Amino acid sequence: MSESLVNSSLDNKLREMLSEVRNFHLGSSVTCLEILKAVMAKKRERDVVILSKGHSAPAFYVILSELGLLSGEELKSFADLNGLPSHVIRGLPFIEVSSGSLGQGLSVANGIALASRIEGEERNIYVILGDGELDEGQIWEAAMSSSHYRLDNVVAIVDRNFRQLTGKTEEIMSKEPLVDKWKAFGWEAFEVENKAEKILKLLYELDRIKGRPKVVIASWKM
Amino acid sequence: MPVFESFREAFGRALVEIGEKNEDVVVLDADVKDSTKTIYFEKAFPDRFFQMGISEQDLISTAAGFAIAGKIPVASAFAAFMMRAWEQIRNTVARDNLNVKIVATHSGFSDFMDGSSHQSLEDIALMRVLPNMHVIVPADAHATGILLSQMIEREGPFYMRLGRDYAVKVYDEEELKIGNAEILKEGEDVFLLACGPMVSVALEVAEKLKDLSIGVADFHTIKPFDEETLLKIARKANLIITLEEHSIFGGFGGAVAEILSENMPRRVIRIGTRDFGKSSRDYLTLLDFYGLSSDKIARKIVEVV
To answer: Which of A100, A115, A144 is the closest to B69 by Cβ?
Structure first.
């Protein structure tokens, strides 16, 4: 899709949109913006993007508006009764599965990847996870399944912003050593600075790695 | 003499027949394939069988992914542990109205030896409350096969609740249909409304109380509920009694009471459980202990009529 996304500056648009709703999940959206830019720039037609951390819906809507798929008027309708839902739901452009409840997106990605394997269909499934979301046990059930089935078309991107709802991730529930954890679960794991062009470059490199699922830890402060 | 069959055998065999006809059907297991009999499907179609390990939440959400990709996933595990994935069923399967078929075995007291941890007495209530969800509780082996094949053909999320082995034959070759309750015996004094294995118990009760005119109906589809047949029965029967191998709170009897209280207020006696189960060396002893044997139910009816 449009590579110009990577260089677009969408931060102000996002802040403006959320200022009207008391900065609803702003933190989660700001750090997700760079990841979404890279993923949507990389996405080919048959690829699937799953926003498992549904709290970043505002960032996703800003991207959709940049792609011309949502009007400014629609952006303003965020969380309004008849407007854009506060967490993404199935039926929105590119959204195959509703989120909002954390921890489920990686399992869904595995299901799509396994079904695609039966059909012999080549597609990447990108799953965007929060670092706080990794507290959910189901993430690690799914992480085992991805590597058990050698789903090398599943690519998880962790929004490593070191924050979760009520504090710093390492104080709420330690995530480190995060790269080692994923590696221990049979994944190829990479750390990258949370900058769209750097994430995009890495995503292209990942296409060459076969036989294992891949995870990108996109760190906000590195 | 009653003929005994097995719910899980019926499920396992029907699934293979369905798999032969429909290539889109895939089966997901939570390391209980020997017990649920999805092992037959694995042997017949190894490429369409997916072992997810002992992880019911991952099982359900992975099935959701298969449905999104256009497959017809059948996710099977023990009912008690399937409820561990209730939130996944709610937030992904039901909310997105996905074509996921959940078949939960070992429900009610059917896993008698394993005791209260394994005995699922709340799942009808938990599934019935979900928008978009269909809830099917077959009475015997024949009903299991025919209703399973219908729910695979129909679009949308389904929950099928099965016992383990003890399935007393109720039907021969009757054409059951999802959504339509079956009146098995007409009666005027008391009408027994039942689902699952309690249908055969209800027929036994009617047989034992020959002095009373007792009707029996099988409500195999709990959601969407066949209100029309219920109201037709309620119009002519003096007393309605519901029978379920499940809690009386929020389950099948609850559904009947909800509908009647709004449309035709009258007394409904709900027979089922009020507590957790316990372990026992055989199923019938356990049913009797909880007041669900035909003897105990017959005695209760004589008391109230």
So the answer is: A115
B68 pLDDT band (50/70/90 cuts)?
very high
Q: Among partner residues A100, A107, A118, which is closest to B62 by beta-carbon distance?
A: A107
Residues of B in contact with A55 (CB under 8 A): none
Using one digit for the tens of pLDDT, what is the confidence trace for A41-62? 999 999 999 999 999 999 999 9
Residue-wise pLDDT for A183-204, tens only, equals 999 999 999 999 999 999 999 9
Is the CB of B55 inside 8 Å of chain A's CB atoms? Answer: yes
Distance CA A200, CA A3 (A): 9
Question: Which pLDDT belongs to residue A222?
Answer: 47
The domain that holds A74 is classified in CATH as: 3.40.50.970
pLDDT band at A1 (very low <50, low <70, confident <90, very high): low
Sorted by where each starts, the structural domains of chain B and their CATH numbers stand as 4-168 (3.40.50.970), 182-304 (3.40.50.920)
What is the token pair recorded at B220? 């195999």
Cβ-Cβ contacts under 8 Å, B67 against chain A: 111
User: Is B72 in CB contact (< 8 Å) with chain A?
Assistant: no
- Beta-carbon contacts of A7 under 8 Å, excluding residues fewer than 6 positions away, are A196, A197
Asked whether the beta carbons of A200 and A6 are under 8 A apart, the reply is yes
Q: How many domains, in total, are found in chain A? A: 1
Among B47, B69, B96, whose Cβ lies nearest the Cβ of A90? B96
State whether A98 and B96 contact (CB < 8 Å): yes
Count of Cβ atoms closer than 10 Å to residue A63 Cβ: 26
**Nearest CA-CA partner of B163 in B127, B199, B202, B204:** B199
